[in-house]
Amino acid sequence: MLERHEVEAFLTLAEELHFGRTAERLHVSTARVSQTIKKLERRVGVPLFDRTSRRVQLSPVGRQLFEEIRPAWTQIGTALERAIESGKGIAGTLRVAFTGAAAGQLLVGASELFRKRQPDCQVRIREAQIGEIVTWLRDDEVEIVLASLPPGFPEREPGFATGPVLVSEARMLAVPAGHPFARRTSMSVEDLARVPMLQLPDTLPVSLREDHTPARTPSGLPIAPGPSAATFQEMLTLVGAGLGVFPVGAQARRYYARPDVAYVPFSDAPPLEWRLLWRAGGATARVLAFSHAAHDMVTDYR
């Protein structure tokens, strides 16, 4: 029978693929993580991770074990959280985060409705930078994040769950004000092959980066990668400096007007979809109640 610290060490290392970050998340030493994994591998009889001096990867047996253990461990955690909350009701402080000014306004509205329905539960709202949303959720700094997510995100990222689409908006391209694209009334996604694309931080899941900053156009033309940035304001500053372009939602034109940046609508790009995101094991009663409140608020607004 696996002990709790063994399960936590294995699942966390499988997510992070880095002993140092795993140790930080578990608040133990790197040596402790290494010892725990080695002990677990001796019990199983085969390596669970393939290690080199430069990277850590799950072995085939490790991958199988992760896929079988993770759902069960998530269910145990969720059941315990719900049992605790059922005993004391929806109370305490719900920690939520947003990226971008428009998302912040939406969260404020959802929070007001949630507090009317759940007067014993407070809501703490924080702004997250682009590269922080996944880290904050995994480190339990927040319970919910409002962010733009690609379709099928939970299926590609099994450590997370999402609520329904709250807002759908057209995609635009942020370009330098002096660029020829800035004089257009619209443009095609295929035009991205002609300019460098600024990159999202590698702390974000691959599926999200592929959706927001793809490496190729739909027809297969390569898109040159530009510099990366950690915040949205950094992205716009790099765009204004002529170092690349960056896809954004239509709300950027209202909330982030700048003299050095122009926003050009795409004529053929799918819309950006904004949803609430939480850890797969974090669907507590107050998280689900907040998700319902947010959905009801935008539904009534429409």
TrEMBL record:
Q: Which GO terms describe its molecular function?
A: DNA binding; DNA-binding transcription factor activity
- Gene Ontology CC terms, in alphabetical order: protein-DNA complex
Can you say what this protein is called?
A: DNA-binding transcriptional LysR family regulator
Would you say which domain of life the source belongs to? Bacteria
Q: Does the keyword Transcription apply?
A: yes
* UniProt xrefs under Pfam families: HTH_1 (PF00126), LysR_substrate (PF03466)
Sorted UniProt keywords: DNA-binding, Transcription, Transcription regulation
Q: Tell me which SUPFAM superfamilies the record gives.
A: Periplasmic binding protein-like II, Winged helix' DNA-binding domain
Q: Which family does it belong to?
A: Belongs to the LysR transcriptional regulatory family.
Under the heading PANTHER family, the entry gives: HCA OPERON TRANSCRIPTIONAL ACTIVATOR HCAR (PTHR30346:SF0), TRANSCRIPTIONAL DUAL REGULATOR HCAR-RELATED (PTHR30346)
Q: Which InterPro entries does this one have?
A: LysR_HTH_N, LysR_subst-bd, WH-like_DNA-bd_sf, WH_DNA-bd_sf
Location of the HTH lysR-type domain? 1-59
